[in-house]
Amino acid sequence: MWSCVLPLFHCGQHTVLMSALAVGGALVVLRGFDPGAVLAAIERHRITVMVGLPMMYGALLAQPQRAARDLSSLRLCVYAMAPMSRTQLLRLLDGFCPNFALVSGQTEMYPGATIFEVQEQRKRFGSYWGVGTLVNEVAVMGDEGDLLGPEQVGEIVFRGPNVMLDYYKDPEATANAQRFGWHHSGDLGKFDADGQLVFLDRPKDMVKSGGENVPSIKVEEVLLRG
After folding, report:
1. Whole-prediction pTM value?
2. Which domains does the chain have, with CATH numbers?
3. Are 3 and 76 in contact (CB under 8 A)?
């Protein structure tokens, strides 16, 4: 039993809808996000899979009625589109659902490109994207199309059947995004020593400070720890 709390026009929620239907699952479609209504729906319909944003899960944690609801049916909660503080994640694992996964991607990579699973989240904190999904490869590429090794910074690229065919009536943009046979995300990243992908920044979001390039995501990490 899957929940639908994100807008149905968004590719993220469309992924949830189509995934459930593809395996013969059932869906509970809610008219907008209301924390109390979501908690009631989980208990009433015995929802097993939920996909939402970190701010949604935060609102569910803050609901006074949460402790009185039976949420034991939840087997997997997925969050996307924004980072989650370690404090909030640990609270959710302890009092909401024992299994949380971060799924990242972009519109050109339907339905998703990377997954950061709960056992890895317990061991490391930061702007991690995890590993590629079962349907696509992920790599870090240098300027000349060379694939980089651990701790080497480059552009995050993807390859697989879930990559877009092209940008509508824009062959130049399509060719630029598909250089060297990989889809180019425009994001900078690296793999750590264990093969987990770390998102660093978009080049345009780099902060210049004291002559150094400071990834904006590092500033966000410090704020999330506060």
Report:
1. 0.86
2. 1-104 (3.40.50.980), 137-226 (2.30.38.10)
3. no
